[in-house]
Please model this.
Amino acid sequence: MGIYTDKRKRTHTPDGYELLLHQSGHLEYDFNWHLGPYWSKFLIEMRDNARFMAVKCDECGNVYIPPRAVCGRCFKEMNEWVEVGPEGVLQGFTIVRFPYINPNNGELMKVPYTAIWVTLDGATTRMMHFSNETDEKNLEVGMRMRAVWAKEPRPTSIHAVEYFEIIK
Model:
């Protein structure tokens, strides 16, 4: 039975049916990985200073967020950090209304929620996040959005930004 032993210790339903167990494999495991210098700086700046940092290519001028080590156009290493956002332009969105299991925590996702793609002011690339707006009638590609930072202490993750809101 391993780590999935039924802690309720029930073997039958209230009306007498045997509770069956079907094992289809082990899906949960702990893991760690090194984020490297670019993502580490990106997430620490979000957590500690409530700001977005991106990298700029000194060859073509592209500004990447999330940051990356090498320019996708010039293939040059990038080491110049610049602040972008926290406002930007909505590039696309999708409203999810179908519930599913969140692979990050194993819980049922709360729906509806809105996934967005936003290009922050000063950036060339767009980043994906969430919006607090769940009515597509109120969203339009090209509209202005603003990051709403999570309350302190902010997590060391992309969730240091709770969501993006429409700038009215």
